[in-house]
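pinning this so it doesn't scroll away 📌
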Amino acid sequence: MQELKSHIQTYAIECGFDLVRITSAEEFVEDRNAALDRIAAGQMDGLSWYTESRVQRGTEPQKLLPGANSIICLGLSYLPSNYEDQPTPPWARLPDTPG
């Protein structure tokens, strides 16, 4: 199993992803409880899409994909690694105009 995990991580990096993590597809009970507590406390007010049903669905992987054993998470940085070497875009060279 470790060999497969290593192969997946190597392949994802070769495909250009910056971050690769693998976890089990078990329920995220603690995370669900924390999220539901935050909703109840009003800490998610203004995020109309962040609902109790969405939290329930998102913390029960088996309901989304029955039989899944693992979850593969991939991350991609939007900031280029050579950020400092990037030329200033033309629009950023214009003087600020009073609004």
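📌 and the second one:
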Amino acid sequence: MDLLRWAVGSDIEEVHAYSNGYAATDFPLDDCYIYSCKFQNGCIGKVLVTSGCKGHGMGEGFLSIYGTEGTIWQNKLYTAQGGVEEIQFEKQDSIRLVSTHFIECVLGGQRPMIDVREGAKTVAALVAGVESAESGKPVKVFNEF
């Protein structure tokens, strides 16, 4: 959800979500959530989170962006003019990078790249999604931190 907020460049205004717990029946909570998000800047997006699905593509985690000038999907840029361009990313150990940054902030006084307010906005969007899944209705996201 935080990656989607960053990519769109806007806070989430409203969430409508569905969930179920069919795949991991021994898990005490739902194991599949799909969030439809309306952003303050007019964009829309969706997030699928699943821990029970098995098969091709599951567990990879990826971001797709669809726009008026083109689409980014599976590390390729597809332009509206029909061009295709490979997007190269340097593979990094994100867990190590985030952990190192956290330690530098705590021990070295470095300012966090993402502050507590941004984290709270992501949590608020996730909580709104759980509330929406439970009620079956869209839920406004509290962003006033």
